[in-house]
Amino acid sequence: MGATSPSTSACRIEVDGSTVRECFAPYDLVKTMRASILVLGPLVARYGRADVSLPGAARSGTPGEHPRRGLQAMGADITIEGGYIRARASRLKGARLVLDTVTVTGTENLMMAATLADGETVIENARASPRSSTSPTS
Q: Theoretical Cys-Cys bridge with 110: which of 1, 33, 64, 70, CB 3.0 to 4.6 Å?
């Protein structure tokens, strides 16, 4: 896709997306990552388009239903063609999104898309992971 990620230390990774040339996530890349659908929302929000291969088993099932419905509600045109989710939007608009089921991936995807949408987005029935008692409180 064109982003670079110079490793600055063992505990820190920086990603520079200023050199992104394509908004395309091919199956060869997607099949290696279960959560690859997470690039859909951010790409369409930032670049106005995204072509993301359906991950593994989802290629024959109902793919990324939550991000698809959510992005459509935010004004994106979504189609599924040849094993790819294709999203297009000149600019996403804030919307009230009600998720049918609580989903981590769906919530994350729509939150990332909403950061660049015009207006306010409210996600109802969003997944909120509780903080572990051993997590830092900072």
A: 70
Q: Which residue has the tokens 């989710």?
A: 85
Model pLDDT for residues 68-89, shown as the tens digit of each residue: 899 999 999 999 888 888 999 9
Distance CA 77, CA 64 (A): 14
Q: The whole model's pTM is what?
A: 0.72
Q: Do 64 and 40 meet the contact criterion of CB atoms below 8 Å apart? A: yes
Q: How far apart are CA 71 and CA 66, in angstroms?
A: 8
Taking the C-alpha atoms of residue 47 and residue 49, their distance in angstroms, rounded to an integer, is 6
Cβ atoms within 10 A of the Cβ of 69, count?
17
Distance CA 21, CA 70 (A): 25
